[in-house]
Specification:
This protein is an all-alpha fold. The chain is built from six helices and no strands.
Length: about 190
């Protein structure tokens, strides 16, 4: 019968599938954002169109939000695969910041992130909590800055350093995300 189906909240594969879609969307935004920076050749050429200049500023928070949500969904699905009783038909997480604290979620599955991974997890957590969605923190206790340099519009930023650092952080994120998906039970 239709009512005998488990609620979607209890299906790890539903969480995993959502995570994959969010990660793919984040990667598409990353490719666009990174291509703009890379084409600037370390600040030696400024052939960005006005739209691209806006994109450099506007796309990063969306990338961070989608990447954070992708990792969050992957982690929650993995937790559910290990213990389906942690959710019922309503999804309510009693894990740091309502289940949005990615550092806490990562630790709850037994991973110990590197310092680069921790730095990016903090930025992703801030993006999920507020900076990817709102112009200001939702609560006074939230950080007012995501802690990652966003680009040349902040003055004399070394573009090569920004591209290099963001690449390192993206690689750290990709590694964590991959480690989480590998922990899912085989079908």
């Amino acid at each position: 019968m239709e009512n005998d189906k488990p609620p979607l909240a209890k299906l790890p594969e539903a969480w995993r599938t959502t995570a994959i879609g969010l990660k793919r969307s984040a990667d598409i935004i990353w490719e666009k954002w990174f291509a703009i920076f890379s084409r600037l050749e370390g600040g030696k050429t400024a052939k960005a169109t006005p739209q691209e200049v806006g994109d450099v500023y506007l796309l990063l928070p969306s990338f961070l939000l989608l990447a954070g949500l992708a990792l969050e969904n992957a982690l929650k699905g993995l937790l559910i695969s290990n213990d389906p009783s942690i959710v019922d038909f309503k999804v309510k997480w009693d894990i740091g910041s309502g289940g949005h604290d990615l550092g806490t979620l990562i630790k709850s599955i037994g991973l110990s992130p590197t310092s680069d991974e921790k730095e990016f997890l903090d930025a992703l957590t801030q993006a999920v909590l507020w900076s990817g969605r709102y112009p200001v923190p939702k609560h006074h206790g939230n950080e007012s800055d995501i802690g990652i340099p966003l680009g040349p519009f902040f003055g004399n930023v070394d573009i090569t350093s920004v591209v290099s650092r963001m690449s390192e952080l993206k690689n750290a994120f990709d590694s964590l995300y991959s480690q989480v998906l590998k922990r899912y039970p085989s079908k």
